[in-house]
Amino acid sequence: MASLIVVEQGKKTSFELQPGQNLIGRHPDCAVGIMQASVSGKHAAIHGENGVFFLEDTGSRNGTFVNKQQITTRIKLNHNDMIQFGDTVSKFEQPEAAFAAAPVSVPAPAATARPTTPGTIATPEAARSIEGATFATFALDEDTEESANITGQMATQGRFGVLDTNPEVKLRAVLEISNSLAGEVNLDVLLPKILDTLFGIFTYADRGCILLKNSRGEMVPKAMKHRRGGEDATVRLSRTIINKVLTDKCGVMSADASMDGAFSGSESIADLKIRSMMCVPLLGLNSEPLGVLSIDSQNPLGQFGQEDLEILMTVAGQAALSYENTRLMQSYAQKMKQDGELEIAKTVQRALLPTEFPQVEGYEFYASYDAAQAVGGDYFDVFPLPDGKVVLSFGDVAGKGVPGALIMSRMSSCVQSTIRHVQDLEEAMCAINDHMCDSAVEGRFVTYVLAIVDPATNTFKLSNAGHMSPIIRRASGEVEQFDEELVGPPIGVVDGYPFDTETKSLEPGDLIVLFTDGVDEAMNFQDELYGGDRLLEFVKNGPAKADELGKALLADVRKHADGRPQNDDITIMTFGRNPE
């Protein structure tokens, strides 16, 4: 039995392949349905012939690849072939037809991989990639607590250790490092400065290293220092000691390692002649380790003592505070920059929306737009055609904020350019959908209404792509909606879809209301929705003029929310014939 295993959004789906043609794509007729936006409607086909399967691309936009090679002709598939349709990855499986696999030569790894658990130290290769690092290499010793020769440790008592023991020395050390780091807002400069200051405080220190946790919980060397040139520049740390420091949040001291019998089998440490080392945690505001700070001495006369460990714990507290302050300052500066850019984006987006509406005798047009964030994904446009008709364009992008705004701006330009050349409603709707499908972003579609008002015949022709039905309020007070069966899929989901249209006549006093889901889904602090029933009732009994109805509806939605911040963009468009 042959099958195609398709991976979409992290989920695997198995499709059994049948003899004959198996179409692949987003079209409903496809046997292998893939809804990823980069996949065409009918992207490719797999043909089963006498137990052998062949793959061909059927004119897709983004190509079909087998084992990372794009195909241009029909090819035979083999068991475990990797196939890519656009951005979607899949695997062809036919175990019964598989031949014995040829041996594969794999280069031996340079170093044994280790699992990336919290507290894991990044590999030496990662360490060497650090820009501006003083050390060329970084190594980690696999050892036990006995071979690590821990001769002293200090439990954490606050971020700055025990301050009532030898307070003068500790205060002097804190002031020295505070002075050194004052005003520094660049992390790449701050971390080496910490080591520079430590070398001034601990005159016997020969090497120092700062390791910080990355987003995956790995310990990555960020700054290293060596006092003397011409000597081995390898920073070598004990995994046991680092894990103990991170787990117990304590400072650890290992003294006279090269002379201790426990190290007779540890050639790496003995060769480096480490006489003494200290490793302490860098604790954050929540008292959780941000990383570790380690210094060591190769001087036989320069062994670190318990007092040194206490001072290093105190200094590490101030260093961690400076690090967090700098990181917060950088985050704040980045946020200010983003806020400034969002203000510009807001201005640009507002410029895409009409500020004036067509002046048509006997008709009135109104619209309001309120984004939930600085920019939003709702969209509307109203503009006249040369023959006197008026185009109404109204949509809601899936999502809000910057991603929604980007799709919204693209939709706006697409509609404007399409209507200039295609003024038939059905053709225009299909052209807009195909254009948006060509380079659609996965998960980003647009529910959309395109309509044309003809003042000469007083008719309103509409095509709906997955949006809520507009509400028609007749002059008599009767409320009606458009046929739900004529609603097609959202724009950007199915290319080549034939959208239907519906035409309604407009009598004097008739009004039409279009809205996005930010209206009926508006919530108050009791989590109660504004709701479709309340919306219909309000439109039915609302003001008779288009602009007054639109403003009153927005005010009623705000009243219902009762001060609760909106969680979606709110856009309302009202238009219709003036009463006689």
Report on this model:
It is a single chain. The protein is α+β, with helices and mostly antiparallel strands. The chain contains eleven helices and 29 strands. The strands form six sheets. It has a six-stranded antiparallel β-sheet with strand order 2-1-11-10-7-8, with no helix packed on it. The protein has a six-stranded antiparallel β-sheet with strand order 13-17-18-19-14-15, sandwiched between helices. A hairpin with a 5-residue loop joins strand 14 (207-213) and strand 15. Helix 2 runs antiparallel to helix 3 (187-201) and helix 7 packs across helix 8 (425-438). The termini are far apart.
Query: Which regions are unreliable across 5 or more consecutive residues at pLDDT < 50?
Result: 99-119, 123-137, 159-166, 256-272
Give a quick account of the main beta sheet: strands, pairing sense, barrel closure. 6 strands, antiparallel
Report the average pLDDT across residues. 79
Rg result: 34 Å
Helix/strand-derived class?
A: alpha+beta
Number of strands: 29
Q: Kindly report how far apart the N and C termini lie.
A: 72 Å
The geometry reads as flat
Strand order of the main beta sheet, please?
Answer: 2-1-11-10-7-8
Quaternary class: single chain
